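User: Hello! I'm new to structural biology and keep hearing that structure can be predicted from sequence alone. Could you demonstrate with Oligopeptide transport system permease protein OppC? Please show me the input and the output so I can see what each looks like.

Assistant: Of course. The first part below is the input, the amino acid sequence of Oligopeptide transport system permease protein OppC. The second part is the output, the predicted structure written as tokens.
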Amino acid sequence: MTSTTDERDLKAASAVRGRSLWDDARDRLLANKAAVTSMVVLVAVAIACFIGPLLSPHDYDEVYREYVKVPASLEPYPRADQVTPEIESVLRRARVTVDELTVESGNFTARISSPRKIDPRVTRYIDRSDLFENAEIYDFSADEKSATVRADVKTLYFFFGTDSNGRDLMTRTLIAGRVSLTIGLLATFVAIAIGVVYGAVSGYLGGRVDLLMMRIVDILYSLPFIFFVILLVVFFGRNFVLMFIAVGAVEWLDMARIVRGQTLSLKRQEFVQAAEALGVDNAGVLKRHIIPNTLGQVVIYMTLLVPKVILLESFLSFLGLGVQEPMTSWGVLISEGSRNVQGAAWMLIFPSIFLTSTLFALNFIGDGLRDALDPKDR
């Protein structure tokens, strides 16, 4: 008898608890295949950008002088036809003559000679090359004018090719993703957080408060964006925090106006008036009724703001106010790739793939969130 009563109590409690609007929105979002796939793609890109450079054998600023603008390839460098000319060039710079050369798999051996005594430090010329390592010299002749040198052929992989300075493009693309995603997402979230709260408060309170708050927005609109960024550069210097503050502190103005317009419409709805009649304070009405019902428009604007922020970052970097060498971003890589598209198309293709994949994913996620948070579907 007691167990039956307990079961009834549990069923009654679950029936009273019910489901929240957020639970329904989550289920509708997870049922959207395009949105779920886009979330997987976005997470994969983020993981690759933040973990990939740690696993890469190349640093993002490491320069390989012998590998400038080499094409993307799954096969290792150097190619077989590159080894012999490079050996001869290196030893020519060391002012020795190659009498006999044997190139084997993974190393080479050369008999060298010179009209004067050979300095054992000649191996430094070989080690400075990007193609060889672990050079050693031995088997000197009696007059030390001939000797034998050997070195290992250094195997390198450039899956995305290299740029115009001989830096690994894969590592730089992943590092650029860190910069673009960090600036784009964080600046967007700051702009949305400020704009939603500011616009909702302005639209809901109305009257003189609304008039004063909107005039402040108009004043900020009148300030040139570049002038505002230059002021931040003077005070804070060039760093990621600057980009984050500069973009986020300006882009919230559009969001504030959008949310204000939605709030002016929502505050006349019956459910808001009912909440006011029940004695809910202004903060409670904004938190539970106004702001949640503006999220559909907010999400749509967010999907447009992220690529806008990424492009703004690229524009500022071009002017010398943003990301500076050797650090990079997707926008900077695409700008550089577009100038070399005829002879080195891979410099444009790979950063563009990452950028477009991210933007498509954000758009599909935005559409899914818009449908999930649409009050008409609840």
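User: So the tokens describe the shape?

Assistant: Right, they're a compact way of writing down the 3D structure. Reading them back into a model, for example: The chain has two domains: 21-59+162-377, 80-153.
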